[in-house]
Amino acid sequence: xxxxxxxxxxxxxxxxxxxxxxxxxxxxxxxxxxxxxxxxxxxxxxxxxxxxxxxxxxxxxxxxxxxxxxxxxxxxxxxxxxxxxxxxxxxxxxxxxxxxxxxxxxxxxxxxxxxxxxxxxxxxxxxxxxxxxxxxxxxxxxxxxxxxxxxxxxxxxxxxxxxxxxxxxxxxxxxxxxxxxxxxxxxxxxxxxxxxxxxxxxxxxxxxxxxxxxxxxxxxxxxxxxxxxxxxxxxxxxxxxxxxxxxxxxxxxxxxxxxxxxxxxxxxxxxxxxxxxxxxxxxxxxxxxxxxxxxxxxxxxxxxxxxxxx
Amino acid sequence: xxxxxxxxxxxxxxxxxxxxxxxxxxxxxxxxxxxxxxxxxxxxxxxxxxxxxxxxxxxxxxxxxxxxxxxxxxxxxxxxxxxxxxxxxxxxxxxxxxxxxxxxxxxxxxxxxxxxxxxxxxxxxxxxxxxxxxxxxxxxxxxxxxxxxxxxxxxxxxxxxxxxxxxxxxxxxxxxxxxxxxxxxxxxxxxxxxxxxxxxxxxxxxxxxxxxxxxxxxxxxxxxxxxxxxxxxxxxxxxxxxxxxxxxxxxxxxxxxxxxxxxxxxxxxxxxxxx
Amino acid sequence: xxxxxxxxxxxxxxxxxxxxxxxxxxxxxxxxxxxxxxxxxxxxxxxxxxxxxxxxxxxxxxxxxxxxxxxxxxxxxxxxxxxxxxxxxxxxxxxxxxxxxxxxxxxxxxxxxxxxxxxxxxxxxxxxxxxxxxxxxxxxxxxxxxxxxxxxxxxxxxxxxxxxxxxxxxxxxxxxxxxxxxxxxxxxxxxxxxxxxxxxxxxxxxxxxxxxxxxxxxxxxxxxxxxxxxxxxxxxxxxxxxxxxxxxxxxxxxxxxxxxxxxxxxxxxxxxxxx
Amino acid sequence: xxxxxxxxxxxxxxxxxxxxxxxxxxxxxxxxxxxxxxxxxxxxxxxxxxxxxxxxxxxxxxxxxxxxxxxxxxxxxxxxxxxxxxxxxxxxxxxxxxxxxxxxxxxxxxxxxxxxxxxxxxxxxxxxxxxxxxxxxxxxxxxxxxxxxxxxxxxxxxxxxxxxxxxxxxxxxxxxxxxxxxxxxxxxxxxxxxxxxxxxxxxxxxxxxxxxxxxxxxxxxxxxxxxxxxxxxxxxxxxxxxxxxxxxxxxxxxxxxxxxxxxxxxxxxxxxxxxxxxxxxxxxxxxxxxxxxxxxxxxxxxxxxxxxxxxxxxxxxxxxxxxxxxx
Amino acid sequence: xxxxxxxxxxxxxxxxxxxxxxxxxxxxxxxxxxxxxxxxxxxxxxxxxxxxxxxxxxxxxxxxxxxxxxxxxxxxxxxxxxxxxxxxxxxxxxxxxxxxxxxxxxxxxxxxxxxxxxxxxxxxxxxxxxxxxxxxxxxxxxxxxxxxxxxxxxxxxxxxxxxxxxxxxxxxxxxxxxxxxxxxxxxxxxxxxxxxxxxxxxxxxxxxxxxxxxxxxxxxxxxxxxxxxxxxxxxxxxxxxxxxxxxxxxxxxxxxxxxxxxxxxxxxxxxxxxxxxxxxxxxxxxxxxxxxxx
Lengths: 310, 275, 275, 327, 294
Ligand SMILES: Nc1ncnc2c1ncn2[C@@H]1O[C@H](COP(=O)(O)OP(=O)(O)OP(=O)(O)O)[C@@H](O)[C@H]1O
Ligand SMILES: Nc1ncnc2c1ncn2[C@@H]1O[C@H](COP(=O)(O)OP(=O)(O)OP(=O)(O)O)[C@@H](O)[C@H]1O
Ligand SMILES: [Mg+2]
Ligand SMILES: [Mg+2]
Ligand SMILES: O=P([O-])([O-])[O-]
What we know:
The complex is a heteropentamer, with one copy of chain A, two copies of chain B, one copy of chain D and one copy of chain E.
Chain A: H1 4-17, H2 20-59, H3 62-67, H4 84-115, H5 118-133, H6 136-154, H7 164-187, H8 191-198, H9 204-233, H10 236-241, H11 259-267, H12 276-307
Helix pairs in contact in A: 2-12, 4-7, 4-9, 5-7, 6-7, 7-9, 8-9, 9-12, 11-12
Chain D: H1 6-16, H2 22-36, E1 45-51, H3 56-70, E2 74-78, H4 83-91, E3 97-100, H5 106-115, E4 119-133, E5 142-144, H6 145-152, H7 165-168, E6 178-182, H8 187-196, E7 207-209, H9 212-221, E8 225-230, H10 231-235, E9 242-243, E10 245-247, E11 252-253, E12 270-278, H11 279-284, H12 286-302, E13 309-310, H13 313-324
Parallel strand pairs in D: 1-2, 1-3, 5-10, 6-7, 6-8
Antiparallel strand pairs in D: 3-12, 4-8, 4-9, 4-12, 4-13, 10-11
Chain E: H1 6-49, H2 55-59, H3 72-104, H4 108-122, H5 125-139, H6 146-171, H7 174-182, H8 187-216, H9 219-224, H10 244-254, H11 260-290
Helix pairs in contact in E: 1-11, 3-6, 3-8, 3-10, 4-6, 5-6, 6-8, 7-8, 8-11, 10-11
The complex binds adenosine-5'-triphosphate (2 copies), magnesium ion (2 copies) and phosphate ion.
Residues 67-68, 196 of chain B line the site of one magnesium ion.
InterPro entries (chains B, C): AAA+_ATPase (IPR003593), ABC_transporter-like_ATP-bd (IPR003439), ABC_transporter-like_CS (IPR017871), P-loop_NTPase (IPR027417), PstB-like (IPR005670)
Domain ABC transporter (chains B, C): 29-270
GO cellular component, one term (chains B, C): membrane
């Protein structure tokens, strides 16, 4: 190379002159600042919730909030604050949703991961996932204007607003989540397991039930837990389709209000700051926050243990 | 230590038998003009190959030449890949296994397979071995125990695991796992055992043990083994097939292949000119 | 065709030079008691090894013995793994590269590296080769074009790609990609080239081309090459180091290693008893 | 500087009103005023309204017409959290108007005083509390006031508050009555309790909802339903609901735009609905003032369209004059 | 050894194969369930909205008179929201992802950030709404304006963008980085010249999906207090606004007041779904186009 000495000399010269090192040090500082936003968000959420919840509990006792059964926050003569009616509604809607999401989600996952041909998978999976992309307000409309009327043909005692219909629709919404997380768990079971099983003449179903699912079980359970967390936090479907009755009941044909729907009710139109009812919002929200947080951590813990298996 | 004696037994027993039996050895598998495509990739070209009873056939060749693909056509495991097309005929004991009506599950009970990476199930040692018999309907606990013990003995691993049958198989060393997989194979009493680079993930000692085991198993089973280690092929096989780019370049007695190959490409490969 | 002539040139030129220069060959790299841990895995044990100017050193050994780890310590690429700890000293032209103040980017400009799998950037052929000079501040288009051309010529691939400099490098064949990666290396005029199994993903023909190229490059660069192909080591290297379980079992002239090894483990490995 | 950046300050006013940063709003509004003194048609800015869901249809109707036909430069935002909830925002100075389906309460006045808010309460229309039924209910379409009360008052008929139609009138079916109404957020709830059942407790198990539309659907679904809310929500859903004609002692009266009147036949169940105006906002923000005037100009015309009986024109005219005196 | 009765195995085989076939059919049906629901849902909203979607509907402001009502206000509001949320989350999200994937890599710091992000991703959206209400609307005194809504929404989708960008960066094969480092490039040079260009398509895909989430979210915006009636179009960051899903919400509950509003809600849903569909299709196109590059 004719200019060979010049190239390496040039490189050396440029290196010395460059301000690269400075930039090299500035970049991580900027990136760190950006990364801190997510931490600040968490801090912000916690602070807001805790401060205002403290205000609430300075006026209402823990005991009343967690053990009494009446929820009439705006009753002029005798306001009562109990989270139990809201909890029961949240619990019921979640259970109903999981009754739909778990069986359909899991079998869908098994079909996609074990049975479907590659081309079938390519068609079916996006369709299943479309369900996850539909805005919840649309599901709410669907539950209220379609599913409830249809269900009422079958169950005449069903109220116009009830917890059953939004529960079912919420389950449908969660199917893709359970399906795709379970599918991830199933497909991360090494193929060698399947080959090992099928090489003995096991049918696909036998290999799946006896080897693949047990090997993926923690990932599958984690997907259920995440589904539960999602159901607990879901807002619009129940707000639209389950009404605002704050009764402590387990009758799924009745109108009930979940924690999330309560928050919407109190904030929609923007409740005046400073009243006990307004602060109750935060007490409910922090309960909701910790419930979902616990579920997410649990899911994480379970799936982490599962990943260690391979 | 017991391993070593086993090995010597094997040698003493097998060498003469091998020679005596030569003439009447039946053909277990025969492959006729097999072609295979993965989608548009033509991975096997006109393969013709026989596997005889109580023999070890080694398949050698550079990476990607179709060794794994070929032995997976023998128990139709290759069909687990999407978009595979196979033409030609493969006869197992006289039946064309690519016949529509041939039940693939039955074929696979008769033909065991051992993979490159040991792949025990995440279950106990016992359950690993009992898995096959259970699937085939054996429920009797006593009988299962007996099968497990004999299979583990057959795979020369019984002494090492007899006290930890209930432990998870993932706790075993790589070499033990591989022999466990062989035991798992034996438990369904196969006729043929296919092995795809069974020692390539193992350390030298474990490799030796598995090689000895293969020599020993030959007395009862027909074995086809893929290996990238030519010395291994030379040591343990009766016949060797050399694959290149999806074709069988040469298939002959192992001695012939290694001492006096017909094809110059075989020679180049064996002397390490490529691969 | 031009390749062949280049090769012959190289041979003619290099053979005598190699012998003549023997005495005065300077040490480029010297490794003293290097130990390396990946977290708790002790991957290298007390490595001692020298690399001389205008020589090819081959590193052989079974999978997982630490070959890749070792050559990655030489340009400190091993630090890209989290949790790596290195002790001992590595001198590059007299400077300890594990000294805190040693600028690692400069080291890597002086020491090129070629990887097992060809790893061109998803950019045009031209941009691949120009990448190094560009990041080191060379912007002049004319100069860049000159550098690209000479580097591609140096890597014996110019004729094949000169008409497709603007095409994506992914469109080249594996062997061309690997030579492109070598050209990319040459573009910053390194002093040493480290190669980690540069031919293991290539077909026989491409392997041959790369081997010839290595022989040719030796005239200007010092080369360290990891290979699992013992015949390759024997063919192209001046010295060979045999690694086992993270230790250097033997390091000597290639002839000696292959004809008359000191250590029985070396012999076992070379004759294929394991690995 | 004030006159110079007229456009910018105008925008500012539009942007800030509605938040609780009263100071900034005021400042911006002042600029605005200065700029607009000469030309009234240039009024711009924003007006925020919250409160009664009963009044919402009327108020949003007025707002829409105002923005579309009268003054497109003004943004009128109407929400409907309910009288009490809206009033809570209003007393904090967050909104310019608070619609109410009842009179402002003493506690609320105290809070306004504490917050330095000067309030004017104006009636805008008349509403008739309407007792509604399932459309197929053909037995209970005529009731006396006492019968209505005994259905809704807790403990009036039985201790456990399960009341059968037959408990009220032996000719009626022996099926349990289900009661419905708006929840405590609403002035309608308060009016019903305070004025119609004299502050006694509502029957246990009464289904109280935040949203009127939900109530309509619920009653429409339940053959044994009886509920109460403003006339407008009945009028807009006549095919989905039945209505009770009430006997106040002089024969059955069906609520209608004609009977709803503070002096008329349905007077006992008639109430005024109000809007409360923040006087400071009206002073400082010409948009608020202009809109307030507009409300009383068109209230009588738009009220019937949304199910309210109009106030007498003279009364509205008087209110406009009251407004003029603010400045 | 002779324990396995090959005869018996053969005899049982047909039954086992039949079971497998039946299960396969059942599971396939279950997979199709989603498709069926989707079809019913689309059928429902399309029939409900039949005849209501026309140019007038798309370009008019909202009104009490259903025949003249339109969604231009909601469309404008949605666009304003996206103008802020898009760039903001892209910058913050990609920067965070680069920090975590390329700079901290392993260890406590990364675990801390990642745990935080994954928990944040699981926080119900209504809680973000409360955060926005408390901090942006009240504490900072913005009121329920575009900026407050956009910031709230940005925080809500930020974890999605971060995680998607992290995955995109992780999918860039490490040999590309090694090649660049091996040439003596610094970390930032490597990221800028090699890693980011290679990860860009996947990052964009993730961004689009995050945007479609932001467009469809309702609860947090209701929480920060969007008025039920608002006519002037927002023209700046400090204007009041409404968005498509909130418009759907109000029309759905107002349907009892005026049944035609249900049709308007359905029509708005169709518009929203079309927007989502276009976004998702774009994402899929990008993904497919650049999928097999390494
Ligand atoms: N699932 C697959 N889809 C497409 N092509 C495949 C697939 N599996 C293998 N191939 C191709 O078929 C050819 C043969 O592959 P095969 O795995 O049989 O090689 P092999 O000889 O076993 O190699 P190795 O020694 O690396 O295991 C190769 O070119 C490979 O790329
Ligand atoms: N990133 C890592 N983290 C932990 N352990 C590692 C890592 N990389 C390599 N090792 C371990 O270090 C040892 C040496 O690995 P290395 O990759 O250097 O082997 P090698 O000789 O190059 O093998 P091969 O021929 O398979 O490439 C092995 O035991 C390996 O498991
Ligand atoms: Mg293979
Ligand atoms: Mg290596
Ligand atoms: O919504 P209200 O009119 O009952 O307060």
